[in-house]
Predict the 3D structure of the following.
Amino acid sequence: AAGVIQSPRHLIKEKRETATLKCYPIPRHDTVYWYQQGPGQDPQFLISFYEKMQSDKGSIPDRFSAQQFSDYHSELNMSSLELGDSALYFCASSLGDRFANQETQYFGPGTRLLVL
Amino acid sequence: KQEVTQIPAALSVPEGENLVLNCSFTDSAIYNLQWFRQDPGKGLTSLLLIQSSQREQTSGRLNASLDKSSGRSTLYIAASQPGDSATYLCAGTSGTYKYIFGTGTRLKVLA
């Protein structure tokens, strides 16, 4: 079965550079979630999209932006990178069912970002 | 604000022991609850999912239960093996669709 695809899997950037992470959800999934896991920490929710509209927002810095495209893939854009942005970034997808609230999130393998 | 605590934070046991990992939510209104395994530097491996209409799930040597009245979940690992060594994370949704993750339990099973 197809899984969530994230690219790149590893990324090294310098401070103040820009990075773009991509997430390709499971086919037919219309909801995407982004999470950030810093070293030794638990994953923290950043932002989510449902049907190409932002559905929820967590502790996402103003330097970060994201969007979901017409094919439901999503991109997380990170500007003015800081050392503290070094983390594992997970994307998850689900099939939105707002009435039954039975969504199961399927997680991608993550993108490991290292800011030097 | 929903917070999730996992107890113990770390655990070291000899091979063959049966284990119980605990997860506690400050807001007991949990819809979906999922247990994950994470190896060092790796991604999340989904172990068990308890959906809103369920109370328990089993897969092989793993059993997870959810008590919605108290907002507590337990993950039971039978006959532990060295290959079970990893960090175990619980995560749940409550009211919103995003997962709130627990603090994790670092498990080491000694051969």
Summary: The mean pLDDT of chain B is 92. The first strand of chain B starts at residue 4 and ends at 7.
